[in-house]
C-alpha cells in the first residue's frame, strides 16, 4: 500500500512534531525490535524511528525488514536517519489518524 498526495502530507505534518519512539542501534534489526515496533505502531498508528550513528542499518534495510514482517506497514517519509511509518490500527479505539485519513 502506498499513501500519496494529501494523505501523505497530513501524516508528515503530524509526524513533524513527534519525537522518535524507537531507535535502531548497534544491535540492528532484531526480532525484539520488530516486536516493539509492532506493539507501538498498533497503539499509535504513526511512529517515528531514528537510526543511531553506531548502527550498520540503512533506511532501505529497515523498510524491507518491516515490509517482510508486516505488509500493511507503510513508509511515509525518510529524512537522513529519521523515518516515519504508518499502519492502520486493528482495534477501533486506537484509530486516530486513519479516521482523519478517511475524511481527506
From TrEMBL:
Keywords of the record: RNA-binding
Keyword Manganese attached: no
Organism: Companilactobacillus kimchiensis
PROSITE patterns linked to this entry: CRM (PS51295)
InterPro entries documented for this protein: RNA-binding_CRM, RNA-binding_domain, YhbY-like_sf
Annotated ranges, domain CRM: 1-98
Source domain of life: Bacteria
Protein name per the record: CRM domain-containing protein
Keyword Aminoacyl-tRNA synthetase: no
Gene Ontology molecular function: any one: RNA binding
Amino acid at each position: 500500500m502506498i499513501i500519496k498526495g494529501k494523505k501523505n502530507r497530513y501524516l508528515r505534518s503530524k509526524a513533524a512534531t513527534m519525537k522518535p519512539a524507537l531507535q535502531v542501534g548497534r544491535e540492528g534489526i532484531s526480532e525484539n525490535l520488530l516486536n516493539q515496533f509492532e506493539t507501538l505502531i498498533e497503539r499509535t498508528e504513526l511512529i517515528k524511528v531514528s537510526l543511531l550513528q553506531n548502527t550498520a542499518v540503512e533506511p532501505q534495510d529497515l523498510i524491507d525488514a518491516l515490509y517482510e514482517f508486516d505488509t500493511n506497514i507503510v513508509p511515509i517519509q525518510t529524512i537522513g536517519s529519521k523515518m516515519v511509518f504508518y499502519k492502520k490500527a486493528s482495534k477501533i479505539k486506537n484509530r486516530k489518524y486513519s479516521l482523519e485519513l478517511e475524511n481527506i
